[in-house]
Every structure is written in C-alpha cells, then in structure tokens.
Fold this protein.
Amino acid sequence: MTFLIAAAGTGGHVFPGLAVGEALVDLGVDQAEMLFVGGDRLEATVYPEAGFPFLGLEMRGLKRSLTPKNLSLPRVVWRARDSIADEMRRRAVKVVLGMGGYVTIPAALASRKGGWCPLFLAEQNAGAGLANRVASRWASRCFTSFPRTEGLERGEWVGNPVRKALARFDRTHLRPTGLARYGLEPELPVLGVLGGSLGAGVLNRAVREIVASWDGPPTQMVHLAGPGNLVTLEGEARELRWHQVEFEDRMDLFYAAADLVIARAGGGVAELTATATPSILIPGEFGSSGHQAANAEFLRAAGASLVLPEGRIGELTGLVRDTLFDPAALAALRNGAREVAKPDAASTIAQAMVEAAG
C-alpha cells in the first residue's frame, strides 16, 4: 500500500506533513510506501533529505489580488492533478492526506479521479485556508489543530502534527544541552525569538529595537533570524547578550533553552504548546481569513500566551521585561500551554491513515 501526503510552500505545511510521514514509519510503514507531493519550494529539499519519495510539480497558489496570472491557474491545477493521479495508479495509493495550501487541491481532485480513495485533510489554523475549505467537500475526515475551526464543520480536534523530538519533549533533560548549544549562561534568563519565517521583517526589526534600548536586568536572547537576516548593531545593550542564528534544525534545543519566546501565530504555535513554552505572540496581518489572529486568541484565552497586536509592537520591550522576570507569570503561561497541548497529533493521523488503508 502507498500513502500520499500533499504538503508544500511554507514550513507551516511542510513540517507537519513530515511529522505524519515519520509517524507512519514508526507504525511500520516503509518510506518507499509513501509519496510526498509538492512544488519547488521548501518541500523539494526537506522530504528528499529525510529519505522520502517526492513528486515535484509545477504549482503556484491563487493570487488574492486581481491579476492575469490567475487566468492560467486552472490549466496548472489540471496538469498537476493528472500527474498525481498517474502516480497514484502506478503506486496503488490507498489514502491521500492534504496538509492545506495550493497543492491540496490537485491532490484532492486526483483522489476523486483515481476512484475515490479516502481523502483526509489536516488544517493547521483556527480558520481553514481556501484549499482545505474547497477540498473538505470530498474529504472522508478533517483533522484540526483547534477545537473549533472556521470553514471545517466536520473537523476533528487532534492538534497540529509536530515531530517526535517535540512530541516527547523533556525540558529538564534537554536544558543543559540547549544552553550549551548557544553558549548561554545557566544563571541568566533566556528570551527566544522566532523571526525567520513569513513576516520576519517585523519581528527582526523589533528585536533590534529591544537590543538597542534594553534597560532591564541582565538577559540573554537567542534570535532565529532566518537565512540572510543576520545583522550587526552598534550600541548593543551591555545587559542583553544577543545570539543570532540563521537556521535551527534542533528546535527541541531552542525551546529547551528559552524561558519566553516571541513568535508569530501561525500553525507553528503547536510547537509552543507541545513544549509548554511561555510566549508572546504577534499575529501577522497576512494569510487567509485572518488565521493568525484567531490562533493567537485561542492561546490567549487558554492562558497559554500573551498577545500583542502588530500595531502596538513598540510596547514589546516593556512586555518582555515585565514577563521574563516574573516567575509566577511564566509558570501560568507554561501551565496554560500544557493544558491545550496535543503532542500526539502526528501519531493520531498516521494511525487513522493505516486503518483506512486496510
């Protein structure tokens, strides 16, 4: 039997897809019995490097502004659908999982064309993206990351898949290794910043402001700035030790080192809850359906995160100072995150796929 996983574009789709693939392996499925489908972005590197078969397609997403580029989109979708359907027949695919994003539509259409093999969907956000909203009409099951997901009326709350290192996270055990990885002092608090994804410019600029104006007690910061975003800053505050990293492939060590994390509010918030990491979320004003604001509001209401609108980002330094040195506040955020965590989402979805395949 073969399982097809369609996941492409950003890490918010790609890494949850990878987590499900790895969970299938843990259930005894050979990597050769899986096929990942996507375009030429992050997925074209991540899946082959992890040892999974990968089918690359010419794909692009729908532009939300009026543009002539949208006129050719149906042709691109049908061509991608046919390529996927051909591979499905050749590999005798039994179950298709769409992780949302532009590649989900041709994968869903291919599942119909191939004789209605079960189609599962996984949605990372509290407001379903356009692709999952459309494909849900054909789906056998829809797995969601939040208890209530706008646009997916039949959603099953299982959580957003995270990789095994985060699903089995042990902060106490990993903390010394995480601190050593970044050359941090164990007696000083650590602020983590996830600034290397979509919307990174706003967070990276905010970090520079924190560094330049810090007037709090001695502090350390690990800043995941993203490729090409490392900068130098004259007049760096002496009381804040700034460690910049372009890319981190051991996110478990990043979360183990951090006492408080500043981040956007995409599907990656599942990592914050899985690791019970206190956070300040700054929802991005991009994407579909204002999904980051909805994600952030769920965590705020659960007591898992503090939320700062982008328009008030000038207040970030003060909020960090007031929170990072308040043990009671950090403990409350940690407990709130732990209460809503669903770290076994990848295993749950993988088990459902195996059962559906018979």
Summary: Residues 169-340 form a domain with the Rossmann fold fold (CATH 3.40.50.2000). The longest strand covers residues 93-98.
